[in-house]
Amino acid sequence: MKKTVQPISGAPARWWHRLDNERIQCDLCPRECKLHEGQRAACFVRAMTDGELVLTTYGRSSGFCIDPIEKKPLNHFYPGSSVLSFGTAGCNLACKFCQNWDISKSRDMDRLMADATPQAIANAALQHKAASVAFTYNDPVIFAEYAMDTADACHALGINTVAVTAGYMHLAPAREFYSKMDAANVDLKGFTDEFYFKLCGARLQPVLDLLVMVHHETNCWMEITTLLIPGHNDSDAELTALSRWVAKELGSDVPLHFTAFHPDFKMPDVPATPPATLTRARRIALDAGLHYVYTGNVHDTAGGTTTCPNCQHAGVIRDWYNIRHYDLSEQGACPNCGTQIAGRYKQFTGAFGPKRIPLHVHAAN
Question: Could you confirm whether domain 60-358 is CATH 3.20.20.70?
Answer without folding.
Answer: yes
